[in-house]
């Protein structure tokens, strides 16, 4: 069956573009296409590309077309030829070539005909076979195509270049061995060479375009043609053209990126020629391109022929070293990157061994030695400004040579050490040398000389190497520490003791610091020690003695041993040795075999080190014990099983003995304070827990997993009585042990769920607060273990066995004290149904024995374990400890996941219902049960528990909103809305938060509509009882409700006093909508005025729209006023996360100075949450100071006040007597300050009025009034006319309104006049408000010497004192929404009457 295409598929965008665009050529092309389509349909041909292709070819050959239709037919042919088969084009390639060449020759100047002809000609050549290329027609056509690729017309040139690239990469021109066939290669090479050889100023463009052809041509040529073409291109670089030269280098570089027929000898010859034609350093682009070209040449050279490249590699460094003398950072940076790449890729083992032999024989003629000499020259003063880059190259050289850098780079290292002023970069080089050659060789070249004077030049003190080695030392010889630093430390300690005896305390202290710094090198020597299997034996005794006797060095030794064991274990457990390692990575890599051998030697000393650490642990300070614990755990992990078991048994035995001794002592002497040993014995047991989790030992075969579980059970039995200890310290350490057991042994957790539940839920109220975090962490481990073992990847049989073990062994072992059953029952009405919450032990779980089914075990887990853990989790969500709070919040969700898992395991599948649907239904029911379980906390007598319960339910609803049924959510709303009558703020706040969560998660109105009346009544009561606290939250809820429900419906449900809040919000909403419509109309008008200013006006409108939204209506409706900034932030539901997680969001840091800002005479409500938004402002503390003949700058006003070091203003007591001279200085300062403020406002007003033409228009109006002075007309009309003229002038000349950027003229005067009046009013009110805020009275002359401000009470007559008027404090006066200023005015008026 023949598939018929659509015309749009064959000729895309032609018909659609003709109907949309007004271009004449496109419409004409569409007409021709329609005509061709009609002809195809007339001949009953299928609508396919081949039909159009054949019809157009026959039409062009027969000449059955009008002359004006030729270019349209060729255009259609160039489009359809891309969609026909290759074989079809190949069959008539001769016809296409002949026709295209004919049209191109006849109408070479017609661009509209040339473009499609180029495409047709290129496609015909691309699909031609190899035999066809032997004909002269194809060669002539290809030559014509090459000519078009350098044409001056860009569109023709681009299309021709595209077709040339397709031809060069086609299968017809490829030879049997790759590359181009000889005839095509010869034609292409001659074409490019002719242009390059005859280049002039006029043909410079053709040469540039010919290089684009050469870029694709060069990699496809045979070596003989490459030689010819490269000769012409390289000579072209000597012209020094900044555009052609980089392109020449780029063209040459294609030989090193793409496969070609060149060999190493050819590359070497090409590089030697390039060295002869190096660019000058003046042309930055050419120099950079040349450097990159030479770098890529040597990298390719090294891959082709390593031996030949090794012999000539020094020429690269010698030639390009001069680039570092350039002052252009781009050149030096590219050179540095090239040096580093060549060092890593080209310097190989053969070069290094050759240089080592040459240095040993003192011949100094190897290529690598010459490279090192070149780098030595880079340390001369000539290259000073590039030393940092050269030092990075030297650092790469050390990394590449590794251990063989000594002695090859000894002189280079000494030269680096002699440099000054580049301490950081020099230290980086020394650090690389340290890792490469080791500490012993480094100190041989650069001795420390700690006894030398700091200013000694001949024997410099290199004490900085101690800190450098501490930071970077690794993969070094441990024997170097034994031979070099241990004797040094003994000498330092001896001298320190001598200084103490001679009472030279400062010198003794310095020597002690050096002594500690020397020992701090030990962890670096123990990090991947290369000779650890032999050197550790000689230093082990010293380390043991130091651990036992020297408490200062003890943490350093512990850190070193821990680091060594952990790093060697990581290397041992890594993958096998890679097949190939780069040379610069070999000296910093340790094989697994080598690491295992060293680790075996270290593990042999476990029986010596572990007893020492156990013995010194009780006498060690608490801040050092953590190092000992880590070291013990590391050593236990590699020790043999016998040693570990013996030590563990001894510690457990001593712990039991300590418990018995304390019980006996407490019985005999109950009042005596006991110094317990159980503190450190319990801590020591933590080091064995991780070892028991491993299935195999590092060296020997460890005890099987069953034996490990037996040891854990023994440890658990021993520490179990300590959970009931009265000492909080013992409880804390015991819970730490339990946490580590549960973290590393999930199997143990599942086996002992019954006991763990009893421990974690027993005596919750009496436990100390610092234990709650540990309890929550243990609960989290238990929940994670349940989820892990409940994974579907495990078999049902295994899961059944695990849970049977958990629930059948609960009562088989005796439980003392803590096994007492706790049962708490509470009943609450939840959505019309009675619910009971029970917390009890697992005592009844073992009654059914081991034959209980899997579903029964999961059911008991849901009914017994989860109810016992939920109360503590909910209560801990209100903890002060941040980590405890975060874990509790996560556990609320994790317990929900456990409930879903239990429901999935207990489901009994039914036929006829999809499995996924049944699982979803079971999970939904489990979540409802979980919420009912949490709802028991609503019956608590403490508001904190009630609030925590509501927040926890909210988190569950938010996380599992897709699984909860709407009926359950509706029931929860009806229950929780009752709590809005609670007198406690946090309870009401939580209910409001839950309401917001429900509204955000469920968009159905049916969820909240049945309870809408209860919600409105609750909001009304909350608004009356605690108006300021719930103000913003109530307004946010009302806004959300008004988006879902009708305003009239909410208004009818509201109480009388609460309706004004709804009215206010509705008014604000309508005002915002009107403002938005108005702004949109202005946008439409502005866009219709002028297309050129469309984008500018739109952006301006967007900015003013955003400003107007937040600022509109701020001065209106003081009753029920809303703080716009807070509402704008609360428009989204982003703050729901803050409520759910019970955490505060990080506030933005205020970097500016805050100033207290007042709003007139109204009192500030400091109890309002939004008070700081009104009284604190950054911009208020800044004024614009207009300097004469300069641009205004923002200057903080705090600059003109005296401040102390902390930024506080200095206010002097005016009652103190002041020196007359000082008084004059203060008076002048006040005058200057007042003059400065007047200058600010006067100059600003003058400039503003001058810009607006205000004064000129005012004078014109005054003159007009004087001329009409004798007229009988009313003066009010003249005044109105003057005001109107002033407004008109002010509008026309000044304001760039919110919706246009024109300042000279305004198209719509009627609209802008109204805007101008609003702006004038705002400017006036803002100026008055600023004056009131700053205490500035515009009616007072500060420069008047007679003016002085009154201080304190007014004295009149014979020192009579007029008392202040006192008003009783009323909390209602703090509300800004109510006008209470009249009370103050009444008092003042009455006082005036009494005076009169």
From TrEMBL:
Keywords: Nucleus. InterPro entries: ARM-like, ARM-type_fold, HEAT_RRP12, HEAT_RRP12_N, RRP12. Residues 1335-1347 have a biased composition (Polar residues). Transmembrane segments: none annotated. It is found in: Nucleus. Residues 811-834, 1073-1134, 1259-1282, 1335-1359 are annotated as: Disordered. GO terms for cellular component: nucleus. Gene3D superfamilies: Leucine-rich Repeat Variant. Belongs to the RRP12 family. Residues 1096-1110 have a biased composition (Low complexity). Residues 325-620 form the RRP12 HEAT domain. Residues 1116-1134, 1269-1282 have a biased composition (Acidic residues). It comes from Cavenderia fasciculata (Slime mold). This is Ribosomal RNA-processing protein 12-like conserved domain-containing protein. Residues 1073-1085 have a biased composition (Basic and acidic residues). Residues 9-256 form the RRP12 N-terminal HEAT domain.
């Amino acid at each position: 069956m023949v598939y018929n295409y659509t015309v749009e598929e064959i000729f895309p965008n032609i018909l659609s573009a003709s109907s949309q665009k007004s271009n004449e050529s496109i419409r004409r092309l569409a007409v021709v296409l329609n005509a061709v389509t009609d002809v195809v349909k007339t001949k009953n041909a299928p609508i396919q590309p081949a039909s159009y292709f054949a019809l157009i070819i026959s039409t062009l050959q027969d000449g059955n077309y009008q002359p004006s239709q030729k270019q349209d037919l060729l255009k259609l042919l160039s489009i359809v030829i891309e969609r026909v088969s290759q074989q079809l084009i190949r069959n008539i390639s001769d016809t296409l070539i002949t026709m295209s060449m004919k049209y191109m020759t006849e109408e070479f100047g017609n661009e509209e005909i040339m473009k499609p002809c180029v495409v047709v000609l290129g496609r015909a050549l691309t699909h031609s076979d190899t035999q066809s290329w032997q004909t002269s027609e194809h060669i002539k056509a290809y030559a014509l195509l090459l000519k078009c690729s350098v044409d001056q017309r860009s569109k023709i040139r681009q299309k021709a270049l595209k077709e040339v690239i397709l031809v060069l990469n086609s299968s017809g021109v490829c030879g049997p061995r790759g590359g181009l066939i000889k005839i095509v290669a010869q034609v292409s090479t001659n074409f490019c060479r002719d242009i390059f050889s005859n280049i002039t100023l006029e043909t410079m463009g053709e040469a540039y375009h010919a290089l684009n052809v050469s870029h694709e041509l060069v990699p496809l040529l045979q070596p003989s043609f490459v030689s010819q073409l490269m000769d012409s291109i390289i000579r072209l670089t000597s012209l020094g053209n900044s555009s052609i030269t980089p392109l020449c280098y780029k063209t040459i570089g294609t030989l090193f990126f793409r496969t070609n027929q060149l060999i190493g000898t050819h590359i070497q010859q090409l590089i030697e020629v390039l060295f002869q034609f190096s660019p000058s350093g003046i042309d930055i682009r050419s120099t950079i391109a040349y450097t990159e070209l030479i770098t890529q040449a040597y990298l390719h050279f090294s891959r082709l022929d390593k031996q030949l490249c090794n012999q000539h590699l020094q020429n690269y460094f010698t030639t390009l070293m001069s680039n570092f003398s350039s002052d252009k950072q781009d050149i030096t940076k590219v050179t540095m990157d090239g040096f580093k790449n060549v060092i890593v890729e080209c310097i190989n083992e053969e070069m290094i061994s050759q240089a080592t032999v040459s240095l040993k024989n003192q011949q100094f003629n190897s290529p690598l030695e010459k490279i090192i000499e070149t780098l030595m020259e880079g340390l001369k003063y000539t290259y000073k400004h590039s030393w940092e880059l050269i030092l990075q190259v030297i650092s790469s050289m050390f990394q590449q040579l590794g251990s063989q850098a000594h002695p090859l780079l000894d002189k280079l290292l000494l030269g680096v050490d002699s440099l000054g002023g580049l301490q950081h970069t020099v230290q980086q080089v020394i650090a690389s040398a340290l890792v490469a050659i080791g500490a012993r060789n480094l100190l041989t070249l650069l001795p420390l000389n700690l006894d030398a004077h700091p200013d000694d030049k001949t024997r410099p003190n290199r004490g900085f190497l101690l800190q450098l080695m501490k930071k970077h030392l690794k993969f070094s010889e441990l024997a170097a520490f034994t031979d070099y630093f241990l004797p040094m430390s003994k000498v330092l300690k001896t001298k320190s003791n001598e200084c103490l005896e001679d009472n030279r305390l400062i010198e003794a202290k310095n020597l002690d610091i050096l002594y500690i710094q020397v020992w701090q090198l030990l962890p670096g020597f123990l990090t991947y020690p290369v000779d650890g299997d032999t050197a550790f034996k000689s230093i082990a005794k010293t380390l043991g003695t130091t651990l036992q006797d020297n408490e200062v060095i003890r943490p350093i030794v512990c850190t070193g041993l821990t680091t060594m064991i952990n790093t060697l274990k990581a290397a041992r457990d890594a993958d096998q040795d890679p097949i190939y390692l780069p040379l610069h990575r070999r000296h910093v890599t340790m094989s697994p075999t080598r690491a295992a051998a060293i680790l075996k030697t270290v593990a042999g000393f476990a029986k010596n080190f572990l007893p020492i650490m156990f013995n010194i642990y009780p006498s060690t300070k608490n801040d050092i014990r953590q190092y000992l614990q880590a070291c013990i755990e590391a050593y236990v992990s590699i020790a043999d099983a016998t040693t570990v078991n013996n030590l563990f048994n001894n510690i457990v035995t001593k712990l039991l003995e300590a418990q018995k001794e304390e019980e006996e002592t407490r019985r005999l002497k109950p009042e005596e304070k006991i110094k317990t040993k159980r503190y450190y014995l319990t801590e020591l047991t933590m080091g064995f827990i991780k070892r028991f989790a491993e299935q195999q030992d590092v060296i020997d075969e460890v005890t099987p997993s069953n034996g490990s579980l037996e040891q854990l059970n023994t440890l658990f039995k021993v520490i179990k009585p300590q959970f009931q200890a009265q000492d909080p310290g013992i409880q804390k350490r015991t819970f730490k042990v339990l946490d580590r057991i549960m973290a590393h042994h999930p199997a143990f957790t599942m086996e002992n769920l019954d006991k763990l539940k009893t421990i974690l839920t027993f005596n919750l109220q009496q436990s100390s607060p610092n234990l709650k975090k540990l309890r929550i962490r243990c609960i989290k481990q238990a929940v994670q273990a349940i989820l892990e073992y409940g994974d579907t990847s495990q078999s049902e049989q295994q899961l059944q066995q695990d849970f049977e073990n958990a629930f059948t062994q609960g009562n088989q072992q005796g439980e003392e004290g803590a096994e007492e059953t706790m049962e708490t029952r509470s009943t609450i009405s939840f959505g019309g149904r009675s619910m009971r919450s029970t917390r009890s032990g697992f005592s009844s779980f073992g009654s059914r024995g081991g034959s209980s089914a899997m579903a029964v075990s999961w059911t008991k887990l849901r009914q017994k374990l989860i109810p016992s853990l939920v109360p503590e989790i909910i209560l801990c969500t209100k903890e002060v400890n941040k980590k405890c709070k975060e874990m509790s919040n996560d556990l609320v969700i994790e317990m929900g996941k456990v409930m879903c898992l239990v429901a999935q395991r207990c489901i009994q599948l039914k036929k006829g219902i999809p499995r996924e649907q049944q699982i979803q239904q079971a999970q939904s029911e489990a979540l409802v049960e979980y919420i009912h379980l949490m709802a028991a906390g609503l019956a608590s007598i403490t508001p904190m528990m009630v609030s925590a319960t509501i927040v926890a339910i909210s988190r569950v609803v938010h996380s599992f909103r897709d699984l909860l049924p709407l009926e359950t959510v509706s029931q929860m709303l009806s229950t929780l809305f009752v709590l809005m009558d609670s007198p406690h703020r946090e309870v009401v706040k939580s209910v409001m938060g839950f309401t917001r969560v429900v509204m955000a998660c469920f968009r159905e109105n049916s969820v909240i509509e049945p309870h809408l009346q209860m919600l409105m009544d609750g909001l009304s009561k909350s608004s009356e009882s605690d108006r300021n606290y719930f103000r913003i939250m109530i307004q946010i809820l009302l806004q959300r409700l008004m988006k879902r429900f009708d305003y009239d419906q909410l208004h009818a449900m509201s109480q009388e006093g609460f309706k004004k809040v709804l009215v206010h919000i509705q008014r604000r909403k309508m005002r915002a909508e009107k403002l938005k419509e108005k702004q949109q109309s202005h946008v439409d008008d502005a866009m219709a005025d002028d297309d050129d200013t469309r984008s500018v006006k739109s952006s301006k409108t967007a900015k003013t729209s955003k400003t107007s939204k937040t600022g509109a209506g701020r001065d209106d409706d003081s009753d029920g006023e809303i703080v716009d900034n807070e509402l704008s932030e609360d428009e989204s539901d982003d703050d729901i996360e803050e409520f759910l997680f019970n955490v505060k969001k990080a506030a933005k840091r205020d970097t500016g100075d805050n100033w207290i800002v007042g709003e007139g005479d109204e009192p500030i409500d400091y109890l309002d949450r939004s008070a700081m938004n009104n009284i604190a402002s950054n911009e208020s503390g800044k004024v614009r100071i207009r300097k004469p003949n300069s641009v205004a700058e923002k200057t903080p006003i705090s600059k003109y006040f005296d401040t102390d070091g902390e930024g506080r203003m200095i206010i002097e007591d005016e009652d103190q007597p002041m020196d007359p001279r000082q008084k004059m200085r203060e008076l002048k300062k006040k005058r200057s300050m007042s003059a400065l403020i007047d200058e600010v406002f006067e100059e600003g007003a003058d400039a503003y009025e001058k810009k607006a033409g205000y004064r000129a228009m005012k004078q014109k109006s005054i003159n007009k009034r004087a001329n009409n002075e004798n007229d009988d007309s009313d003066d009010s009309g003249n005044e109105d006319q003057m005001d109107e003229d002033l407004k008109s002038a002010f509008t026309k000349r000044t304001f760039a309104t919110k919706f246009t950027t024109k300042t000279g003229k305004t198209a719509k005067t009627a609209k802008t006049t109204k805007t101008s009046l609003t702006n004038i009013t705002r400017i006036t009110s803002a100026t008055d408000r600023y004056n009131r805020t700053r205490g500035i009275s515009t009616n007072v002359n500060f420069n008047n010497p007679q003016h002085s401000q009154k201080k304190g009470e007014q004295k009149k007559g014979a020192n009579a004192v007029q008392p202040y008027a006192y008003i009783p404090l009323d909390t209602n006066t703090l509300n800004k929404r109510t006008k209470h200023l009249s009370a103050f005015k009444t008092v003042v008026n009455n006082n005036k009457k009494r005076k009169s």
